[in-house]
Design brief:
The protein is α/β, with parallel strands linked by helices. It has two domains: 3-105 and 244-323, FAD/NAD(P)-binding domain (3-Layer(bba) Sandwich); 108-242, FAD/NAD(P)-binding domain (3-Layer(bba) Sandwich), CATH 3.50.50.60. It has helices spanning 11-23, 44-49, 115-118, 128-137, 157-171, 192-205, 246-249, 295-314, 359-377; strands at residues 3-7, 29-34, 38-40, 59-61, 71-74, 79-81, 86-89, 92-95, 98-101, 106-107, 120-121, 141-147, 176-181, 208-211, 216-220, 223-226, 230-232, 235-239, 242-243, 260-261, 274-276, 281-282, 325-333, 336-343, 351-354. Helix 1 packs parallel to helix 8.
Length: 378
């Protein structure tokens, strides 16, 4: 009997576990560990923020995966021992024939002085109800949406948020000045100047000011502090810095980038039979920029790793490779969305483009969530 231990129950972890149960012998054990009791597609947070839907409508219990024969443990990982392919959950230590680290990116608002006190964390589901109420109560003035560090999950999301918040305020007749700031030189650098111009013109068309090259150093009451200026606000929705969870940072898996380095096509770490997938890894594209952190890539990574583990257990050729094909949706309002899509690991340059806005892409975005919730949990 073989055992695979999967740490993390997000896109990557679930995809790995499901695929393994399809590929492995029935006697083999697949264990999935997560401190949460449910799964949720991340883009639902913005819908909840602007009142289009609720968080609960898109949440599904991880325990429902047990019907597939997956052993689901709700617990916190307190230690990872990659040399032994083992992890500790409190006093319990589990070892395995293969270990998959899929613990995602941790939000670190406390690393920006004043952020927890004065900003609403737009990436934390636990803070969304409070942020949504603040947006409902907002009667006008200066509203800032801030990206406080890179990399961060789902790069188009802050711009989508700005567009949907703008529509929400206008529908209520609220007069507001909206600004989006980023430490990067353009909105989505992986798109190049032409793609970024399209996004930034969308913002401008709705009267939203985009502030590139703005790295915030602190937040004070009613002001965001930058190196050479301060920007006032009446309401601040922030995307905090991201980092690997502490248990990953302390595991010996993290490299110079601050994230787990892996072989781009196989997701192998430096330790035999230890893989890392999803937001916790950093993979360089051919142009040197990091592969975006997105659920669609975590899912594909998980399926790749599962296929390779199953082939290895069976003594077969390890043929599955991660292709990084796909993309992210960027809702623009009026029932439409754009899509950032392409072949992100293509050489000599990533082949990535931004589509025109259409109803089709918004329908695809809704279907993306529906298909996974139905296929994985029902």
């Amino acid at each position: 009997m073989k055992r695979v231990l999967i740490l993390g129950g997000g896109f990557g972890g679930i995809a790995t576990a499901r695929r393994l149960k399809q590929k492995l012998d029935e006697r083999d054990e697949v264990i999935l560990v997560d401190r949460r009791d449910h799964f949720m597609v991340g883009f639902r947070k913005t819908w909840a923020l602007v009142g289009q839907s609720t968080l609960a409508a898109g949440q599904r219990p991880l325990d429902s995966l047990t019907r597939l024969g997956i052993r689901v443990l709700r617990d916190s990982v307190t230690r990872i021992d990659p040399k032994a392919r083992a992890a500790s959950l409190g006093d319990q230590r589990l070892s395995a024939d293969a270990l998959v680290v899929a613990l995602g990116a941790e939000l670190a608002p406390e690393t920006v002085p004043g952020f927890p006190q004065y900003a609403f964390n737009a990436y934390d589901p636990n803070d969304i109800p409070r942020a949504a109420q603040a947006l409902t109560d907002f009667q006008g003035g200066k509203l800032l949406i801030g990206i406080f560090g890179v990399p961060y999950k789902c790069p188009p999301a802050p711009y989508e948020m700005a567009l949907l918040v703008s529509d929400s305020l206008k529908a209520r007749g609220v007069q507001a000045s909206l600004e989006v700031f980023s430490p990067q030189p353009m909105s989505l650098p992986l798109l190049g100047q032409v793609g970024c111009d399209l996004i930034e013109s969308r913002l401008a068309d709705k009267g939203i000011t985009f502030l590139p090259n703005h790295k915030a150093t602190a937040v004070e009451a009613g002001e965001v502090v930058f190196a050479n200026e301060r920007r006032p606000f009446d309401l601040l929705l922030g995307v905090p810095p991201h980092r690997p969870p502490a248990v990953v940072r302390e595991s010996g898996l993290v490299g110079d980038s601050g994230w787990i380095p892996v072989k781009p096509r196989t997701l192998e770490t430096q330790f035999p039979s230890v893989y890392a997938i999803g937001d916790v890894v950093q993979i360089a594209m051919a142009n040197g920029k990091p592969l975006p952190k997105a659920g669609v890539f975590a899912e594909a990574m998980g399926e790749t790793v599962a296929d390779r583990i199953a082939a290895k257990f069976r003594g077969q050729e390890l043929e599955a490779t991660f292709k990084a094909e796909g993309g992210c949706y960027l809702e623009v309002g009026a029932g439409q969305a754009m899509m950032v899509k392409g072949q992100f690991l293509a050489e000599p340059e990533p082949e990535v483009s931004l589509t025109e806005a259409s109803n089709k892409y918004l329908e695809e975005k809704h279907a993306f969530e529906t298909q996974r919730l139905q296929t994985w949990f029902e």
